[in-house]
Amino acid sequence: MNSPEQLPEHTLSFGSSDAQLENFTDSYVLFKETTRKYREAYEQLEAQFEFLNIRLEETNLELRKSLEEKDRVSNYLNNILESLSGGVL
Q: Is the pTM of this model over 0.85?
């Protein structure tokens, strides 16, 4: 059987390395918690991104409609001006 002196350095053993195991466990728990928080933040960012994209699409649609209406009014008024100048002597 292997004695503690024959174990590779990377093998976790009990006794003198209990502190190492505890540190590793603490680090792993912290890593999992940090990962969870990053995942939640990412999901919130995705939701906010989707919301802002929808609002942007709505705003662009409103702006297009407004621009089309202004173009129609401008063309209508230009037609009136052209017909007036043609009728004045």
A: no
